[in-house]
């Protein structure tokens, strides 16, 4: 080999690895469209659509002059019904379900479909792949869930009461976003360490968490639901019938503690997920 050829080889630049966040953004752009048009999004739309239909029925009943809900014989006003629907349907069911179905699939689906090697051979860090897909999950779910809860609010709350209660809608939207982020991060980590994490995720969300919440002692502090429950009373007005509901949450921590705990859990589980993805060797079944 001549000296000129040797010099050319030495001067040839090595392949550059994209920065962590730039790689995550590229994966985000690729994954968002896939998620929005996937079968999971159809399932999500059906799940989220159920409260919207119930709100529409409640609005029709209200228009006819019949109170759709009474608590201890007292007629519940529109914002009370809205708060209860947020708590029962969205916070206790929809948010955990979406966290399980989307979070566990971020890496597990790629392994099951044997496409994980194509993602990992790109000039980006493995952790960027997970973060990019996690951000796509957040955008996809919020684009469906938050508009749905807004529709429920305007179906239930008369126009004349919007000015005085709109702040509760804003608080609820933020609470739902925090819940989606926390559950998504937790189950993203579960999806990196288990081969079939969906069953484990469902057992955790609707088995362990539900059991721990009714047990005495400190077990409830090991659940995300405990801190989301602590924020729920702050998303409800304290007067009228809602005072009865708030009495259920007397033992809940303060709102700043809940926000800090959920933010810390989100960051911690994302860090664990990134660390696991970058260190684990994924062996695909033949």
Report on this structure.
The protein has 286 residues and is mainly α. It has one domain. The protein is built from 12 helices and 2 strands, in the order H-H-H-E-E-H-H-H-H-H-H-H-H-H. A two-stranded antiparallel ribbon has the order 1-2. Mean pLDDT is 80; it is low at 1-15 and 237-250.
Q: How many helices does DSSP assign?
A: 12
Shape estimate: globular
Beta content: under 5%
The biggest beta sheet is recorded as: 2 strands, antiparallel
SS elements, strand count: 2
Which spans have pLDDT < 50 for at least 5 consecutive residues? Answer: 1-15, 237-250
What is the average of the pLDDT values?
A: 80
Structural class: mainly alpha
What count of structural domains? Answer: 1
Cα gyration radius (Å): 23 Å
Helical amount: over 70%
Features:
mainly alpha; 73% helix; 1% strand; two-stranded antiparallel sheet; 286 residues; single chain
């Amino acid at each position: 080999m001549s000296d000129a050829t040797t010099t050319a080889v030495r001067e040839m630049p090595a392949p550059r690895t994209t920065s962590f966040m730039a790689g995550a953004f590229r994966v985000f752009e690729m994954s968002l469209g896939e998620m929005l048009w996937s079968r999971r999004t159809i399932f999500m739309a059906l799940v989220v659509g159920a409260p919207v239909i119930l709100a529409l029925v409640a609005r029709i009943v209200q228009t006819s002059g019949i109170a759709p809900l009474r608590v201890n014989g007292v007629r519940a006003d529109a914002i009370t019904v809205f708060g209860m629907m947020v708590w029962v349907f969205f916070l206790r069911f929809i948010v955990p379900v979406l966290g399980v179905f989307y979070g566990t699939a971020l890496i597990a689906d790629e392994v099951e479909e044997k496409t994980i090697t194509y993602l990992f051979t790109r000039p980006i860090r493995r952790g960027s792949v997970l973060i990019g897909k996690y951000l796509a999950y957040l955008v996809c779910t919020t684009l469906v869930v938050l508009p749905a809860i807004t529709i429920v609010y305007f179906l239930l709350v008369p126009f004349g009461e919007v000015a005085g209660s709109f702040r509760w809608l804003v608080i609820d939207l933020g609470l739902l976003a925090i819940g989606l982020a926390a559950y998504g991060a937790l189950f993203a980590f579960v999806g990196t360490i288990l081969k079939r994490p969906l069953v484990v995720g469902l057992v955790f969300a609707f088995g362990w968490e539900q059991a721990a919440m009714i047990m005495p002692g400190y077990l409830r502090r090991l659940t995300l639901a405990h801190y989301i429950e602590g924020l729920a009373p702050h998303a409800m007005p304290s007067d009228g019938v809602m005072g009865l509901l708030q009495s259920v949450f007397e033992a809940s921590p303060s709102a700043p503690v809940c926000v800090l705990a959920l933010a810390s859990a989100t960051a911690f589980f994302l860090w664990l997920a990134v660390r696991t993805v970058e260190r684990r060797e994924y062996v695909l079944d033949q």
